[in-house]
Amino acid sequence: MELVCPAGNLPSLKAAVDNGADSVYVGFKDDTNARHFAGLNFTGRTFEKAIRYAQDRGRKVFVAINTYPQPSGFERWKKAVDQAAEHGVNALILADMGVLDYACERWPNLNLHLSVQASVTTAEGIGFYHENFAIKRVVLPRVLSVNQVAHVIAGSPVPVEVFGFGSLCVMVEGRCLLSSYATGRSPNTYGACSPGSHVRWEETPDGTDTRLNGVLIDHYGEGEKAGYPTLCKGRFQVGDHTFYALEEPTSLNTLSILPKLKEIGVSAIKVEGRQRSPAYVAQVTAVMRAAIDSCLKNPQSYQPREQWMRELSGVSEGSQTTLGAYHRPWQ
Amino acid sequence: MRLSIGPIQYFWERQRVLDFYQQAADSPAEIIYLGEVICSKRRLVKPEDWFAIGEELKQSGKEVILSSLTLLEAASEVASLKKLCANDSFMVEANDISAVQLLSKAGRQFVTGPSFNIYNGRSLKLLAGKGLKRWVLPVELGLATLKDLQAQRPEGVETEVFALGRLPLAYSARCYTARSLNLPKDDCQFKCIDYPDGRLLKTREEQDFLVLNGIQTQSALTHQVLDQVPELKGIGVDVLRISPQFNDTMKIIDIFYKSIFNNDIEDLYDNLLELLPVGPCNGYLVEQAGMDHGPQQAA
Questions:
Q1: Which pLDDT score is estimated for B299?
Q2: Is A240 in the B-facing interface, judged by CB distances under 8 Å?
Q3: Which among A175, A169, A176, A122 is positioned nearest to A149, based on CA atoms?
Q4: What is the 3 state secondary structure string of chain A?
């Protein structure tokens, strides 16, 4: 099982490589990727350095170009594909059919991975992208149980990558418009969910309000730690109850099911978090490396160490983790 | 320009569904989409019932399309999809790439629904080569992009716009209706039948924000494009989709039908507002946040 880690800048990429990532995925400094945040991502010289640093050490670099261009922006996505290809990256992670079509035609020898943003959950769907664009790998959305993942792998014509750790999207990726409903900007159109440009933190007489384009996402009382107003992780009223109606602030953590993921034939484990710090990348990569190595060495006796779990919880949203949809009762 | 009735997004009593399509048969909507698109556990109306309803509507002169499930997870859902795509009576609306693959391999024409991502001309052209007969503009796209796409549209492909309804915004493995009642998904007790327009979610300061509809999340506000009907007609949009709500859908269809032939929509607009469960929005079409309600001619 390959360990695929995120990098939003050069220090993060080095942290991933130094701590045992097999592959690192990055994006360019614009809306062609789904972590389009201020101060993040790669351009020109830094991109070259990043590729050299990883590839000199025998690691791979993937470039995520995984948002959905509209006609007025399509040329920018083509340029991103060309730029990545010309620099000899190991694979592109793409979602849009038009971009896949372009990349496949212009760079027939380049490895194409199907991004989680393509929202594909079946072997039939994977078959479409394999037959039309010769994709070499698919990343599955975080909506399938372990048994369902196993079923998809059994029928998939290409290796399957799944998310192993990081912030949890509770909606099927690539088809979630909650962010653009509130702000006009979504992962698909803009490369960001609940964008910082629309976030407001307001001190109130009894605590803190967090807002997204004016919409109250949550209210925190005195002494409660206020979290980032990610739309699906706020507290709302349904009927007479006020609660985390969609999901709590929590991160996905699959350490406890690594042997199962290996057994069903998962080819690669992805860590979420290109927007996070180099320290996060270093810590999560090191823990995941140790855990995967331990699991591969002896899957029968593998147990996630307490220290690993503690370290991952420490960098998780709301300091808590979940198995998410992999585990049926979560659903 | 024609009107369509989109698939019912909610879980309604069987008789209500039958009555609804009886009324639809006499409505000015020419295209009717049928089937369960949200949750495969909702089976008060069974696949064979949908076929029977479809046959009747066909005899009333309607173009009938069977809509596929939007988020596929279980193997049983893929098996049902295969059956649906192999039917030889009706065209299928593909709400997921799996359906496109099955239909194109079978050499059959298809429609893509509002949650199927077609954001640019290259995707449109590629799918036209696979058998795309009609596509629904993804709901988060606006008029500027629609105009560009109309200019790049391959010959023979029709364009449909989601013209009225609570917006389909997201899909999850989790059932939010069950969660809101503290029930596990596997023992959901089919509670969504108690919320035939979805269950309202408000912010902590009582703003009507979203609607929970099983595994789907919708907008609380009803997206409506009545003001833009003349413009949509002008750029060659072929079909306007009315997404069913529990009450007054036929009245809404009449309003939109009149709007196609009448540029003065002020009275129609006032009539429409009274029929919406919470209120209107149209931000997506006018390049704003989806929940916004942009300037309208009728105001």
A1: 35
A2: no
A3: A122
A4: CEEEEECCCHHHHHHHHHCCCCEEEECECCCCCCCCCCCCCECHHHHHHHHHHHHHCCCEEEEEECCCCCHHHHHHHHHHHHHHHHCCCCEEEECCHHHHHHHHHHCCCCCEEECHHHCCCCHHHHHHHHHHHCCCEEECCCCCCHHHHHHHHHHCCCCEEEEEEEECCCECCCCCCHHHHHHCCCHHHHCCCCCHHHEEEEEECCEEEEEECCEEEEEEECCCCCCCCCHHHCCEEECCEEECCCCCCCEEECHHHHHHHHHCCCCEEEECCCCCCHHHHHHHHHHHHHHHHHHHHCCCCCCCCHHHHHHHHHCCHHHCEECHHHCHHHC
- Would you state the pLDDT for residue A170? 94
Q: What average pLDDT does this structure show over A5-23? A: 98
Measured between CB atoms, which of B140, B185, B202 is closest to A236? B202
**pLDDT at residue A86 in the model:** 98
Quick: pLDDT tens for B200-219: 999 999 999 999 999 999 99
Enumerate long-range contacts of A130-135, CB under 8 Å, 24 or more apart.
Answer: A130/A157, A130/A158, A132/A100, A132/A101, A132/A104, A132/B126, A133/A100, A133/A101, A133/A103, A133/A104, A134/A104, A134/A108, A135/A100
Tell me if chain A has a CB within 8 Å of the CB of B2: no
**Chain B touched by A217 (CB under 8 Å):** yes
pLDDT-derived band at B264 (thresholds 50, 70, 90) equals confident
Quote ipTM for the complex.
Answer: 0.96
Say which residues have a Cβ less than 8 Å from residue A36's Cβ, sequence separation at least 6.
A27, A30, A67, A190, A191, A192
The pLDDT of residue B183 is above 90: yes
What percent of chain B is predicted at pLDDT more than 90?
96
Q: Which is nearest to A41 in space by CA: A192, A193, A250?
A: A192
Nearest chain A residue to B288 by CA distance is A184
Give chain A's domains with CATH numbers.
2-168+250-330 (3.20.20.70), 178-243 (no CATH)
Q: What domains does chain B contain, in order, with CATH numbers?
A: 2-167+220-281 (3.20.20.70)
Per-residue pLDDT tens digits for A36-74: 999 999 998 999 999 999 999 999 999 999 999 999 999
Instruction: Confirm or reject contact between B119 and chain A (CB < 8 A).
Output: yes
**Three-state SS at B112:** strand
Q: Which pLDDT value is given to residue B298?
A: 38
Which residue in the set A122, A181, A328 is minimally distant from B98, CB to CB? A122
Residue A217 tokens read as 């996402």
Decide: helix, strand or coil at residue B90.
coil
State yes or no: pLDDT of A153 exceeds 60.
yes
Most confident of A312-316, B100-104, B261-265: B100-104
Q: What is the DSSP string of B167-193?
A: EEEEEBSS-HHHHHTT--GGG-TTGGG
